[in-house]
Design goal:
With 108 residues, this protein is mostly helical. It has helices spanning 20-25, 28-57, 61-68, 72-80, 87-98, 100-107. Helix 2 packs across helix 5 (87-98) and helix 3 (61-68) crosses helix 4 (72-80). The protein is elongated, with a radius of gyration of 18 Å.
Length: 108
């Protein structure tokens, strides 16, 4: 994976910062809708990541859930974007992505 370093210039609107004028012009309903949209996008990105990690390992959902000791429903919820892996589960997915052999050996 390639790492790109960026500097955020606060003087440029939309460059990693909110546009306060735009936020001030929004109603509470619009802000809530935007937050819901952002949350849904985060869940979908997490779902793609969890699915990609599992597929790179060549495991079915049932095999993957057994190897990492979580319920199959949890894996399905991650991959369908209903839930996001958090805490230790998120860290485990990162380790499985970066060093799959070592992680699977440690989990055996």
């Amino acid at each position: 994976m390639k790492i790109v370093r960026m500097k955020i210039d606060a003087a440029i609107p939309g460059n990693g910062r909110i546009d306060p004028d735009r936020v001030d012009a929004m109603s509470e309903e619009q802000i809530a809708a935007q937050q819901a949209s952002d949350d849904a996008q985060v869940r979908q990105e997490a779902a793609k990541y969890a699915r990609r990690v599992r597929k790179r390992l060549g495991l079915s959902q049932a095999e993957f859930s057994a190897r990492i000791d979580v319920s199959i429903d949890t894996v399905r919820n991650w991959e369908q974007g209903k839930r996001c892996p958090t805490g230790v589960a998120k860290a485990l997915l990162k380790v499985l992505d970066k060093a799959p052999e070592a992680a699977l050996t440690a989990l055996s």
